[in-house]
Design a protein that fits this description.
This protein is an all-alpha fold. It has helices at 2-7, 10-39, 60-74, 83-102, 107-122, 143-164, 170-189, 192-212, 222-241, 245-250, 258-265, 267-282, 295-301, 306-327, 333-352, 358-368, 373-393, and strands spanning 131-135, 138-140.
């Protein structure tokens, strides 16, 4: 079998994996929707929902099946022996996610399940970050710090991604974008198992997107799906950060800038969740208190369609990544961090100006007090012309 694998072209295998994953999802989802409707396992809207009708959920079941069948073929390319760890983690998330979608679990129970899942992944030493390549002056990373960072990284990505599953198309588009970037990186790095896992994920997400955007045959990811996708994105992020200098050179990334690059790949989930937490703390609320302050909620509340809101967010995410990626080749990590922070503030401040309700105006006044008056006045004229253009051309239905 090994001799046959050596002769197979990895590009051809990736097309097969994509086809398998896409077809399984595309054919299974309508059947799943029928079963959910028959058994009345629909997602009921609440005060935080962006939907007004009962809608089928549990698409994560299809993601799981697509991945397991894909991994059957992918494991032949698994030189790092990580497939079995991933299967164990996916199985736990499937069980916990299903129960949460059907019954609703406490946050502590979900976090505990996620920690157990991550433990299976970190049992593979190839996913231990042992070197930060000089980022913040850090080179070698102690074992305990590496393990702690691994837990934090995947936990944060899982839950940040889960919060993006609030409007049609957004979570799927963010996932497709992130897995596409990782697929291109891992392909050029020669990390075939991660390349093929990314391709498989693109396949089932593309199929899911077709139904998630449908008006008559809609389905949601549910916590099952968002945790599975977030879990895989976390794994991809860890493996990217454990790459060596030669592998980074193959994709035009300075090793010292790798951490900033990963943040730019998951730009919107990482920054929007952090932004909302900061706003809640400023307003003297709990950091994890549920509300509708995420940017996609703001867009929907102001009258934008789900598609237009998702399109706006994914386009700004792609632009942000390209700016950071192109800048990384000639900037040190300090310069790149400054660019990343500037891009984050500029894009989110620009988009938040589309929110015209009273609480948003109060919030902007708070931020204004931290900006020197000369800089604010100069920036205001430019920003105002951009906002006027956006509202006239792209956001004509925005509620005043």
């Amino acid at each position: 079998m090994e001799h046959l694998i050596d002769k197979i072209n990895i590009e051809s295998v990736s097309l097969i994996i994509f086809g398998i994953s896409f077809l399984i999802s595309y054919l299974m989802i309508p059947k799943l929707i029928g079963v959910i409707r028959f058994k009345k396992l629909m997602d009921n809207p609440n005060e935080r929902s962006s939907h007004i009708q009962e809608t089928p959920t549990l698409a994560g079941i299809v993601f799981f099946v697509s991945l397991i069948i894909s991994i059957f073929f992918i494991h032949y390319f698994d030189t790092e022996d990580v497939s079995i760890n991933i299967i164990a983690g996916l199985t736990i998330l499937l069980i916990v996610g299903l129960k949460d979608d059907l019954v609703v679990l406490s946050a502590n129970t979900k976090i505990l399940a996620q920690l157990i899942t991550i433990t299976f992944i970190l049992l593979n030493s190839d996913l231990h970050i042992v070197n930060f390549h000089g980022f913040l002056g850090i080179t070698e990373v102690p074992f305990i710090v590496s393990i702690g960072f691994g837990y934090f990284c995947i936990i944060y990505i899982i839950n940040a991604y889960n919060l993006m599953d609030g409007i049609d198309g957004l979570a799927a588009l963010i996932g497709i974008m992130a897995f596409t970037i990782y697929a291109l990186f891992f392909y050029n790095m020669g990390l075939n198992v991660y390349f093929l896992l990314s391709v498989s994920s693109i396949g089932y997400l593309v199929a899911f997107l077709r139904f998630n955007l449908s008006k008559s045959n809609k389905i949601f990811m549910g916590d099952t799906g968002s945790m599975i996708v977030g879990f895989l994105l976390g794994i991809m992020t860890l493996r990217f950060l454990t790459s060596d200098t030669v592998q980074f050179e193959e994709i035009g990334v300075l090793p010292v800038n790798a951490l900033v690059i990963t943040m730019s790949i998951l730009f919107f989930p990482v920054i929007d969740v952090l932004r909302v937490i900061i706003i809640r703390i400023i307003n003297k609320k709990g950091a994890f208190t549920p509300d509708r302050r995420h940017l996609h909620h703001v867009f929907i509340d102001k009258g934008l369609s789900h598609r237009r809101a998702s399109f706006t967010i994914i386009v700004t995410s792609i632009i942000s990544f390209l700016i950071i990626y192109l800048a990384n080749t000639f900037l040190s990590y300090i310069g790149l961090l400054i660019v990343f922070i500037f891009v984050s503030f500029f894009i989110f401040y620009l988009l938040m100006l589309l929110d015209t309700n009273s609480s948003a105006r109060i919030q902007r006044k708070k931020f204004k007090s931290y900006i020197p008056e000369k800089i604010y006045n100069r920036e205001f004229r430019i920003r105002k012309s951009i906002i006027v253009f956006l509202k006239k051309v792209f956001y004509k239905n925005l509620i005043k």
